[in-house]
Amino acid sequence: MSVFPLEQAHWPPGTPLSIIIPVLNEAEALPAILAALQPLRAQGAEVIVVDGGSHDDTPTLAEPLADHVLTSAPGRARQMNAGATRARAEALLFLHADTRLPPDALGLITQALVRRSWGRFDIHLDGKSRWLVLISAMINLRSRLSGIATGDQALFMRRDAFDAVGGLPEQPLMEDIEITKRLKRLARPACLRAKVVSSGRRWDQRGAWRTILLMWRLRYRYWRGVNTEELAKAYRHVR
Where does the secretion signal sit in this chain (predicted)? Predict the structure, then answer.
């Protein structure tokens, strides 16, 4: 049960949802993602793109399809915190630039945040590998059992919950794991069975099982207390 009274979940009139998208050199994928969000904008949601210093046309392409295009120092957590600071809504959705929401996302999120203070979607990884269906199912099951979620599952939360845990920890890796651990201390998540569709490009490029082993190894080291700067260097080296 949420630690926040349910009456706090009745949003005041105005913007129902702020969608915050951190980007870096996403000119190829971003226009399609933003185009898919236009029906939500028509329903009153705002879209905030936070650029971390792209060297391509990402900010220019985002301008006509977003309510705000911000620039911040690079770092996904830092960018998302900057977007949350600018956001007008009492409900926040953090969306990766290669992830597509289900058509009824606004209604699903609104209903979920009346019952819970935060949540996430199930995920479908879209790519060439035949293992992606199984990997998606494993991610969804692990998240449902553990109450921990990853950023590509489209994390959403009430602003009071976001503020209560101090926002996203500005660390170079595992910021999604860390904030969901903190949010879980407030309440169990709303685990929506509706699926976001996220790119499986990293799985295709490196290989499905090699990527699984890499992520398990990084998470084990994180659990053991290894500094996130060191983990990020290892991750960048492998990529």
Answer: none
Instruction: Report the distance separating Cα 71 and Cα 82, nearest Å.
Output: 9
Other Cβ atoms closer than 10 A to 173: 22
Angle at 141 between CA 209 and CA 107, to 5 degrees: 120
Residue listed under structure tokens 């904008």: 41
| Residue 99 confidence class, pLDDT cut points 50, 70, 90 | very high
Task: Extract the tokens encoding 44.
Answer: 């009153």
Domains of the chain in sequence order: 6-205 (3.90.550.10)
**4, 160 contact by CB (below 8 A):** yes
pTM of the model: 0.87
Q: Over 88-137, what HEC string results?
A: CCCEEEECCCCEECCCCHHHHHHHHHHHCCEEEEEEEEECCCCCHHHHHH
